Amino acid sequence: MSDNLLTIAGKTYNSRLLVGSGKYVDLAETKACTEASGAEIITVAIRRTNIGQNPGEPNLLDVVPPEKYTILPNTAGCYTAEDAIRTCRMARELLDGHKLVKLEVLGDEKTLFPDITATLKAAEVLVKDGFDVMVYTSDDPLIAKRLEEIGCAAVMPLAAPIGSGLGIRNPYNILTIVENANVPILVDAGVGTASDAAIAMELGCDGILMNTAIAAAKNPVLMASAMKHAVIAGREAFLAGRMPRKRFASASSPIDGTFF
Amino acid sequence: MKIILNGNALDLPDNSTLLKLIESQDLTGKRLAVEVNLEIIPKTEHAHYILKNDDKVEIVHAIGGGSANNSGSNFALNSGIISPSVNNHLDKS
User: Fold this and answer.
1) C-alpha span between B3 and B59 (Å, rounded)
2) Better-predicted residue by pLDDT, A156 or A250
3) What are the pLDDT tens digits along chain B (93 aa)?
4) Are strands A207-210 and A17-20 parallel, antiparallel or unpaired?
5) Which of A14, A29, A201, A260 is 20 to 30 A (C-alpha) from B26?
């Protein structure tokens, strides 16, 4: 089904689930969960190399190879536009000219809510610099539109605070953002379990990016699989169009032909 | 001469190239990116780029990360965010 393909910055994907590669116990778990999720876009963080420590240790990109997956470097941990821009440029060098990045500029440590003014500023610079920017933002429809107008490749409102697992806290805002958009809208952050993912997709979101909901589950590999199915189910339900809600019952078996 | 590599002082022979530094840290052939004094030095220039005393060098790689986890992942305990502006920012607010 062609309308089941996700297109971001001119590239198409079968999976609408994007996953982060953080918070796993080890690289084996990262690999197993990534594979179970069916995700094709994987976020990574850019950090200092561990100088002088375990030089032979496996690298994340060995288990999530760029030849197989679309690597999405993110600016996680950046609290200024300057740091975020710098991180994206380092990622581009690291990944041989790779243009797709996830921009997030955080406002404070307690909420990890985005600093919107800094996010807008960084987005403008990065778009001008030739990056394809997928941007983490609040669930404010006006800001989402503004980020689209700046030229972001995808807009990714939070559904609840990062790592909170609180689910889709303001479905009406997410719906408004989706209805207004001409670029893909992906829920980024807040999903806690499979039903949350299905709800986001039923609202018409183009995809979901998650990390903690999988990594912090008791069985992360099984949750990765659950999320894969939830995203597919939610997308199909959105395309199918749900029945209207009715206050009273409506029998589904015919009344004619009863023998009692 | 002395340089600062990823926040730590390091003694290097004078006129060392960036490539020599990378080799000395057992990072040859790894997928990484290098900044000297906030300027990215492309891979193609590593062999020619000659370091100077007091240069600030950052060598970064990709690690596990998703939606903003400040701590990074368990297998990169000693990794740091490139610049510690978090605290500066919080101090101002």
Assistant:
1) 13
2) A156
3) 999 999 999 999 999 999 999 999 988 888 899 999 999 999 999 999 999 999 999 999 998 887 544 433 322 233 344 444 433 333 433
4) parallel
5) A29
Tally of domains in chain B: 1
Q: Which amino acid is at A226?
A: A
Let me know if A23 is a catalytic residue.
Answer: no
pLDDT tens-place string over residues A9-38: 999 999 999 999 988 988 999 999 999 999
| CATH code of B52's domain | 3.10.20.30
Q: For chain B, positions 21-60, list CB contacts with chain A under 8 A.
A: 25-27, 30-35, 38, 40, 42-43, 58-60
A74 in reach of chain B (CB within 8 A): yes
* Rounded Cα–Cα distance for residues A42 and A13 (Å): 12
Instruction: Quote the ipTM score.
Output: 0.84
Q: Is the separation of the CB atoms in A238 and A202 below 8 Å? A: yes
CA–CA separation, A68 vs A64, rounded Å?
7
- Give the distance from residue A142's alpha carbon to the nearest chain B alpha carbon, in angstroms: 22
Place of tokens 């240790």: A57
Which of B60, B64, B65 is nearest residue A48 as measured by Cβ atoms?
A: B60
Place of tokens 């990016």: A209
